[in-house]
C-alpha cells in the first residue's frame, strides 16, 4: 500500500510544532515514513508524553510506607495488610465523550478497568467524576444521557459496582464535558505485574480482541482543542465490548497465575505503538513487530492504522517461551485471540515489518523516555481580594435554591442506572461522601471518594488544589476510614497559555502540599490538557480520587442522623462566602477568594473523628453549601428532621474548611465535647435532629417538601 507523502499539512495534522518535526529529522537523519510519522505523533503528543506537565508532576509526593508502586505503571498499588494490596487509578475520556458520549464514556470505563487488572488485580469498585455544561445548553441533555448510559452499559455488563462519584454543571463545560473514570482492584501484594520487558529474544504476544480502524489517532485528537471540525473527529472514538473485556480479565488473571507472564501492558492510548514502546523502554530493550501476525477484524489495514488503532479489549505481553502452549490454550478457552507478533531485541530499535517490508525503523528510547519536555511559561493568577456581598434573602429560601440546583440536587437519577451491588460486597452505595466495599473474606472495608471544587481552583489554584485533597481526606475520615493514598485527574485548558499553565502549576503546588501534610501520596493519575473549544477553556478541574481503609465493620461511621441526636460541629466557622455555592447558585456571582485550607487543622480534626468514632452516630464533612446542606442531607438520610440554632447566612452557608457535622446521642455528645476540650479541637453544639421539619433559626419548612424538591431535579431535567 502506497503511503501518503509527508507534506507540511500532514505534519501539522499530526500535531507537530516546527521545532518538534525538526527534532524528528535530527534523530532519524532522514525524512520519516508515514507510519513513522504517526508513531512519533502518538508518542510525543500531550496525552502520551505529558510533555507540558512532567516537570511539575515530579514535585508531587508519591511514596510512603504503604506504597508498593507509585506513578509510572498502569495503576498505583498500596498495601492494605495481610498480604493484600489495593490497585487503583483515575483517568479521563473527555474528548471522546463529547464527540460520542455513549462510546466515549463506555470505553473510558473499559480502559481504566484494564489499567487495574493489567497489574494482576481483580476490579472491585468503580467511580466517575462528570462535568457538564449548564442544563439549558442544547447539548447537555444529550451528553449526560449518553455518558451515564455508556458508563452503566459497560460497568454493569462487565460486573463491577459503581460506588461513588460526582456530577457538576457550569457554563465552562458547555463545549467540553469531562468524564473522569476511576477503578480499584484487589491483588496479592507479592503478585503484582509490571510492564517492563526483560530478556532478549522473548516472544511479544498480542492478546484479546481483534484490531480494527476505530480509534485511529485518538491520542492525538485528545491532545488538541476542539473547533468547528469536531464532527470530523468521530471516527477517532473507540467502540467497546464489555463482555469481551470480562473474558479478557478472566483470561489474564488465569494466565498470570500460570507463571507465564514476564510483563504485560494494556493497549490504551495509541494502542499497539504505546504499549510496545513503553514495555521496551522500561526494560531497556528494543522490540521487533510483524504486523502480518496481528489479528485484524477489517481487511487491507495499513501499518499506520494497525499501529495507531485504539480498538478496545487488547493487551500486549512478553511471555516465557516455554509457557506458550499453556498460555495459548487459556486464551483459546476464553475465545480470545492469542498471537505472537514479535520479540524483544537487544538494540535500541523499534522495528516494524508489514508485508515483508520494513515500514518503521526507529530508536525506541527516543519515542518514550526521550520525548520532548517543556518548561512552559506560566503566570500566577491575580489574587482575589474582593469581599463578597451577603445575599439579601431568607435562609430557608436560600436553602431551597441550593437544594434544587443541579450541582447539589439528589443524584439518584445517575447512580440508579449503575449496578452498585454486583459482586455482593458493597456496604454503602453512592449518595454519601464515600462508597464502601468489603474486602471479600476479611473484616476489612475500603472507602472510595473523588472530589474537587473547580470554582475554588479558578479563584486560587494553590488553595483550590489543597482543598480538593482536603475534602477527599475528610470524605474518607467521615466514614471512619484511614486515608491511604490518592490518584489525580488533572483537567485543564491549553497549557500554551501562561494563565492556564499558571493554574496547573498552582494546583500542583497545592495538591503536593496537602498530600504531604495529610500523608496521602499520589500513586497514579492522568493529565488532560487542551480542554477548550474555540479558545474557551474549562474551569481548572484537578479531580482527586482517594482510597481509605477501615479495619472492621464496627469502625464504620454512618452518614445519617437519628431522631434525638445532637448536632455537633467540629471545626471553626468564620462564615467564608467567597466562591461559595450560595453566591454562585443564589446570586449567580463569581466573587471572592477560595477558602483558606489549614492543613494542620485538617489533620487534627480528622484524627479526632477516628479516635472517637465509637461515640459518633453519623458524620459528614462540610463542603458545598456549608452547614445547612450538610444538616439537611444527614437528616434526610435518617428520615428525620433537624433544627439548627443559627439563622444567618454566613454561619449556615459559609464554606470554611476542616469542618465536620457529627450526629451523636445526648450522652455521647457530652463525652465528645469533653474529649474535644481535652484535645484542644473546636467542637460545639449547633442544633438537634428530630421531628418532621427543617428549621434554620426561626424559619422552618416540612422535610417532606424539601426532600421532594431535592429528589425531583434530575428526573425533571434529564428524563424520568
Helices, by number, come to: 25
Uncertain runs with pLDDT below 50, 5 residues or more? none
Broad CATH class of one domain: Alpha Beta
The CATH architecture of one domain comes to: Alpha-Beta Complex
Helix content: 25-40%
Distance between the termini: 52 Å
Cα shape: globular
Give me the CATH superfamily of one domain: PurM-like C-terminal domain
Biggest sheet: strands side by side, in what order?
A: 8-10-7-11-9-12-13
Characterization of the model:
The chain is of the alpha+beta class and 720 residues long. Among the domains are: 242 residues, Phosphoribosyl-aminoimidazole Synthetase, Chain A, domain 2; 157 residues, PurM-like C-terminal domain (Phosphoribosyl-aminoimidazole Synthetase, Chain A, domain 2), CATH 3.90.650.10. 36% of the residues lie in helices and 23% in strands. It has 25 helices and 28 strands. The strands form 5 sheets. A 7-stranded mixed β-sheet has the order 8-10-7-11-9-12-13. A 7-stranded mixed β-sheet has the order 23-25-22-26-24-27-28, sandwiched between helices. Strands 1-2-3-6-4-5 form a 6-stranded mixed β-sheet. α19 links the parallel β17 and β18. The longest helix has 20 residues. The mean pLDDT is 94.
Amino acid at each position: 500500500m502506497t503511503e501518503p507523502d509527508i507534506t507540511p499539512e500532514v505534519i501539522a495534522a499530526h500535531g507537530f510544532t516546527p521545532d518538534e518535526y525538526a527534532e524528528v529529522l535530527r534523530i532519524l537523519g532522514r525524512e520519516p515514513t508515514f507510519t513513522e510519522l504517526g508513531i512519533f505523533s502518538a508518542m510525543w503528543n500531550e496525552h502520551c508524553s505529558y510533555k507540558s506537565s512532567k516537570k511539575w508532576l515530579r514535585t508531587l509526593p508519591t511514596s510512603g510506607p504503604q506504597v508498593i508502586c507509585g506513578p509510572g505503571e498502569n495503576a498505583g498499588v498500596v498495601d492494605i495488610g495481610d498480604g493484600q494490596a489495593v490497585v487503583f487509578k483515575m483517568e479521563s475520556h473527555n474528548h471522546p465523550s463529547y464527540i460520542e458520549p455513549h462510546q466515549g464514556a463506555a470505553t473510558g470505563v473499559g480502559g481504566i478497568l484494564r489499567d487495574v487488572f493489567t497489574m494482576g488485580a481483580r476490579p472491585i469498585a468503580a467511580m466517575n467524576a462528570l462535568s457538564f455544561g449548564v442544563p439549558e445548553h442544547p447539548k447537555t441533555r444529550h451528553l449526560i444521557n449518553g455518558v451515564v448510559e455508556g458508563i452503566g452499559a459497560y460497568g454493569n455488563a462487565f460486573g463491577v459496582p459503581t460506588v461513588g462519584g460526582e456530577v457538576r454543571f457550569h457554563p465552562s463545560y458547555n463545549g467540553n464535558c469531562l468524564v473522569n473514570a476511576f477503578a480499584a482492584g484487589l491483588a496479592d501484594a507479592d503478585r503484582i505485574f509490571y510492564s517492563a520487558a526483560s530478556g532478549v529474544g522473548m516472544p511479544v504476544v498480542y492478546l484479546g480482541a481483534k484490531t480494527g480502524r476505530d480509534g485511529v489517532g485518538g491520542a492525538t485528537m485528545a491532545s488538541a482543542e476542539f473547533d468547528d471540525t469536531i464532527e470530523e473527529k468521530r471516527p477517532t472514538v473507540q467502540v467497546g465490548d464489555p463482555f469481551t473485556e470480562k473474558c479478557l480479565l478472566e483470561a489474564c488473571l488465569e494466565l498470570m497465575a500460570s507463571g507465564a507472564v514476564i510483563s504485560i501492558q494494556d493497549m490504551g492510548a495509541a494502542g499497539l505503538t504505546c504499549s510496545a514502546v513503553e514495555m521496551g523502554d522500561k526494560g531497556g530493550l528494543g522490540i521487533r513487530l510483524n504486523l502480518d501476525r496481528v489479528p485484524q477484524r477489517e481487511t487491507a489495514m495499513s501499518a499506520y492504522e494497525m499501529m495507531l488503532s485504539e480498538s478496545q479489549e487488547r493487551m500486549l505481553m512478553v511471555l516465557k517461551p516455554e509457557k506458550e502452549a499453556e498460555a495459548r490454550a487459556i486464551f483459546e478457552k476464553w475465545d480470545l485471540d492469542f498471537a505472537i507478533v514479535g520479540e524483544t531485541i537487544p538494540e535500541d530499535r523499534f522495528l516494524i515489518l508489514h508485508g515483508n517490508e520494513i515500514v518503521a525503523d526507529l530508536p525506541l528510547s527516543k519515542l518514550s523516555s526521550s520525548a520532548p519536555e517543556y518548561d512552559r511559561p506560566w503566570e500566577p493568577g491575580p489574587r482575589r481580594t474582593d469581599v463578597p456581598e451577603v445575599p439579601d434573602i431568607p435562609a430557608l429560601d436560600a436553602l431551597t435554591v441550593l437544594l434544587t440546583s443541579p450541582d447539589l440536587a439528589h443524584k439518584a437519577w445517575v447512580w440508579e442506572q449503575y449496578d452498585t451491588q454486583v459482586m455482593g460486597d458493597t456496604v454503602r452505595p453512592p449518595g454519601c461522601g464515600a462508597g464502601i466495599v468489603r474486602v471479600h473474606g476479611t473484616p476489612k472495608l475500603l472507602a472510595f471518594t473523588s472530589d474537587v471544587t473547580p470554582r475554588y481552583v479558578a479563584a486560587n489554584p494553590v488553595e483550590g488544589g489543597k482543598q480538593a485533597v482536603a475534602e477527599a481526606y475528610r470524605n474518607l475520615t467521615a466514614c471512619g476510614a484511614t486515608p491511604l493514598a490518592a490518584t489525580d485527574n488533572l483537567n485543564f485548558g491549553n497549557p500554551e497559555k501562561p494563565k492556564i499553565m499558571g493554574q496547573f502549576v498552582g494546583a500542583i503546588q497545592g495538591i503536593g502540599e496537602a498530600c504531604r501534610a495529610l500523608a496521602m501520596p499520589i500513586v497514579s493519575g492522568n493529565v488532560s490538557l487542551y480542554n477548550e473549544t474555540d479558545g474557551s477553556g474549562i474551569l481548572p478541574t484537578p479531580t482527586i480520587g482517594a482510597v481509605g481503609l477501615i479495619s472492621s465493620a464496627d469502625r464504620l461511621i454512618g452518614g445519617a442522623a437519628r431522631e434525638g441526636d445532637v448536632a455537633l460541629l467540629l471545626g471553626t466557622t468564620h462564615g467564608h462566602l467567597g466562591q461559595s455555592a450560595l453566591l454562585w447558585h443564589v446570586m449567580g456571582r463569581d466573587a471572592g477568594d477560595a477558602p483558606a485550607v489549614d492543613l494542620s487543622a485538617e489533620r487534627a480534626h480528622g484524627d479526632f473523628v477516628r479516635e472517637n468514632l465509637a461515640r459518633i452516630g453519623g458524620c459528614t464533612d462540610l463542603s458545598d453549601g456549608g452547614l445547612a446542606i450538610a444538616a439537611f442531607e444527614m437528616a434526610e438520610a435518617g428520615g428525620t428532621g433537624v433544627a439548627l440554632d443559627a439563622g444567618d447566612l454566613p454561619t449556615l452557608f459559609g464554606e470554611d474548611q476542616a469542618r465536620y457535622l457529627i450526629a451523636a446521642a445526648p450522652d455521647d455528645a457530652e463525652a465528645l465535647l469533653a474529649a474535644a476540650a481535652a484535645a484542644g479541637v473546636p467542637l460545639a453544639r449547633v442544633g438537634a435532629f428530630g421531628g418532621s421539619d427543617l428549621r434554620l433559626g426561626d424559619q422552618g419548612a416540612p422535610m417532606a417538601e424539601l426532600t421532594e424538591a431535592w429528589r425531583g431535579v434530575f428526573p425533571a431535567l434529564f428524563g424520568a
